[in-house]
Amino acid sequence: MVDRRKFIKAAGATGVAGVAGLSGCMGGSGSTTVSVLTWTGYDAVSDQIEETLGDVELDISVAEGSANMFSTVNAGGGEQFDIVIPNNEFVPRFIDAELAAPMDMDVLTNFDSMYGTFQNAAETQFADGGDVYGLPVQFGWYAYGYDSSVLPSDHEQSYEVLFSEEYEGVDLSGSIALYDGYYKTIMATGLALGYTDAFEGDTVSFTDEQLTTIEETLIDFKPNLLGFVHDEETLTQDYQNGNVAVSFANRSTHVGIMNDYDPLEYAQPAEEELTWFEGAVVTAGSSNKEAAFRVLNEFIAPETGAALSENRNIMNTSQDAMGNIDAPTLQIDPEVLEGMIPFKPAEQNEAWIEMFQRVKNA
Amino acid sequence: MSALQRLDAAIERRGERAKLALLAGPGVGWLLTLILIPMAFLMAVSFARISSSYDVVWSLSVANYTDLFVGENGPLQTPFIDSFVLSLGIAAITTALTVVLAYPVAYLLTRLSGRRFKLVLFGVLVPFFTIFIVRIYSWFAFFGQSGLINSTLMNAGVVSEPIGLFEFGVAPVIIALTHAFFPYMLLTLYSSLEGIDYGTIEASRDLGASRLEIARDVVIPLSAQGLITGCVFVFVPALGTFITPQFLARGKITMVAEVLTANINQLYAIDYGAAGSMFLIIPTLLAFMIVLRTTSLEAMG
Fold first, then answer.
1. pLDDT digits (tens, 9 = 90+) for B179-190
2. Which of A348-357, B12-21, B279-288 has the highest mean pLDDT?
3. CB nearest to B145's CB, from A175, A234, A349
4. Backbone φ, ψ for residue A353 (5° rounding)
5. B161 has a pLDDT exceeding 90
6. Which residue has the higher pLDDT, B52 or B164?
7. Contact A268, A336 (CB under 8 A)
8. For B50, which residue in chain A has the nearest alpha carbon?
9. For position B136, what pLDDT does the model report?
10. Hey, how many other C-beta atoms are within 10 angstroms of the C-beta on A338?
């Protein structure tokens, strides 16, 4: 039988342990919990950031795409997440919905180390009424990869390769893979057709005639495609099995494949690469804005930014971070950034989606 | 009946009701919480609209249904209709193939016993102890211009160039789905065939019926309940399949679940998705109604 004294002692100890545990959840150690809604891979630098900042804990959630991030934050009034990191073309939507807080440039001390292209992007695409609302964190681009044992490296690099049964004497029929996503594939087709004027405004806007030609091109060429792919694993197998010779997809996808398949190279097409970057936003409803800005500053810090990039196989917008990266596949010539075409919202988004579905069902 | 007796009877009746409520309560609660309420919400959203800031606007509208059926080029010319028809076709062929392949195996199982029965059953079912996606992915290496099938045929000199049938597309999807859903058909057919009195088959044989006539006039009618149930168990998941065409058609076709997912993920068009989902639910409900009207729970195994 348990005597009263022992019972009280045990109950007291349990209570103390409970309170201690609870205070830990509430940030009882004096730290602020910053919640982040983002893509996979950011959690790899959580410990590093927490150690560097000392008084911040990160709570990272992963969302399935930028639209999902917007709807999640919008549904909750922007209070449940301090930081959201959608793709750049979604940041203006956060600004329009008044879900983004203006950046505190005094805290973002690493801003000046970013490539000029991205500083400029922040001050234009992410700006409104004189304030900047987003911070470019990581970036990559879409062009095409190719098996150099099939298509020589000295071929004339152009998106036209993606729509050629035969290119410079090489039979590509049935061994071309396009990206399984309407937005990127339609833009690449537009570029291959020479519709560069569609990319000049704040949005990507094809004329009806251009859209019809893009659809016809995709449908006519579909029998020559291996298919539409989006994941690294199946594309890796395709290259290893000799199913594919050319593939239009994200550079980071190809970088991942290069580790398993040596002859794979990534092209620099004459029409320029389609560039995306992740634009971090501190939510207007955040009650931890100061801590959130310090976390953002770490994402582009020389060491943390480099670690983030190496973990995700994606380049960092900070030159200093890029300077700390050893992986050969992440080394870039800064000149490549000059002509890049940034992702912008599609003017006829719904029509693009419907058209892509028609193409796939044709 | 005295007042006391009436009171006793009332208490007894109330006790029965309480017992019934206690037994049925958790099941009904489960059904309400996890099926009926979400379904009712889905149906409500299918008549609502999503604003540009992704809020649900609760106004009664049939616009989502119109979007499903009326496209830029006219009525019934929409990606949804194309995908729905394609999905119905793929699901129907898959179901037919599983019937053709599972019937003889199920029949064989009923004729075996002891160790041989266990061996055949184990041999047939062991691949299905892996998860669905692994089973689908295992077919990946077989297809394509340089896949195992085409390479083997070309190396053996049977063909000089890859056969289109074995390239990524509709055929690999049907083959993989048939393989994936084969056990559903096999087990329901076996359960039904096992209940047949084989004296009737022997009697038919004695009366001069051929093997084909026995199958057509005796075995199939007597196992019809299992056949219908098996068809439902295969057709319904095949209709809503999502991952298989992504792997094995390499995105060159779009089944109906992919159309709905694309609209939800890319446009956050949950209203359109909800309306489209109704057309996946309707064939499912119809199929279950057919099963409930034609078969008993025992026949469902």
1. 999 999 999 999
2. A348-357
3. A175
4. -60, -45
5. no
6. B164
7. yes
8. A71
9. 86
10. 11
What's the rounded Cα separation, in Å, for the pair B213 and B170?
34
Which chain A residues have a beta carbon less than 8 Å from that of B254?
Answer: 357, 360-361
- pTM to 2 decimal places: 0.78
Nearest by CB to B254, from A177, A237, A360: name it. A360
What is the per-residue pLDDT across B122-134, written as a single tens digit (0 to 9) for each? Answer: 888 887 888 888 8
> Which of A186, A232, A358 should one mutate to test binding to chain B, selecting the residue with the greatest count of B CBs within 10 A?
A358
Angle CA(B27)–CA(B32)–CA(B35) in degrees, nearest 5?
100
Q: Which of A75, A241, A354 sits opposite B144 (nearest CB)?
A: A241
Domain boundaries defined on chain B? 1-45, 62-299
Asked whether the beta carbons of residue A361 and residue B86 sit closer than 8 angstroms, the reply is yes
CATH architecture, domain B62-299: Orthogonal Bundle (1.10)
Q: What is the DSSP letter of B219?
A: I
Is the minimum CB–CB distance between A287 and chain B shorter than 8 Å? no
Q: Which residues of A166-186 are buried (b: 16+ CB within 10 A; e: fewer)?
A: ebeebebebbbbbbbbbbbbb
Q: Go through B78-103 and write b for each residue having 16 or more CB atoms within 10 A of its CB, e for each that does not.
A: bbbbbbbebbbebbbbbbebbbeebb
Alpha carbons B153 and B164: distance in angstroms, whole number: 12
> Interior CA angle at B257 toward B254 and B261, to 5°?
95
Q: Which of B246, B251, B265 is the closest to A67 by Cβ?
A: B265
Of the candidates A97, A275, A73, A304, the residue with the CA atom closest to the CA atom of residue A191:
A275
Q: Does A177 touch chain B (CB under 8 A)?
A: yes
Structure tokens at A59: 């709570």
Paired tokens of A65: 């795409």
Higher confidence at residue A76 or residue A253? A253
Q: What DSSP state is assigned to residue A315?
A: E
- Coil, strand or helix at B18: helix
Pairwise CB contact (< 8 Å): A227 & B251: yes
> Lowest-confidence range among A61-65, A99-103, B55-59, B215-219?
B55-59
Which residues are within 8 A (CB) of B45 and not within 5 positions of it... i.e. 6 or more apart? Answer: B56, B270, B271, B274
CA angle (B154 as vertex; B152, B159 as ends), nearest 5:
125
- Tell me, yes or no, if A179 comes closer than 8 A to chain B by beta carbon: no
| Cα–Cα distance measured from residue B254 to residue B239, given in angstroms and rounded to the nearest whole number | 12
Do residues B145 and A174 lie in contact, with contact meaning Cβ atoms separated by under 8 Å?
A: yes
Euclidean distance between CA atoms B73 and A63, whole angstroms: 35
What is the residue type of B255? M
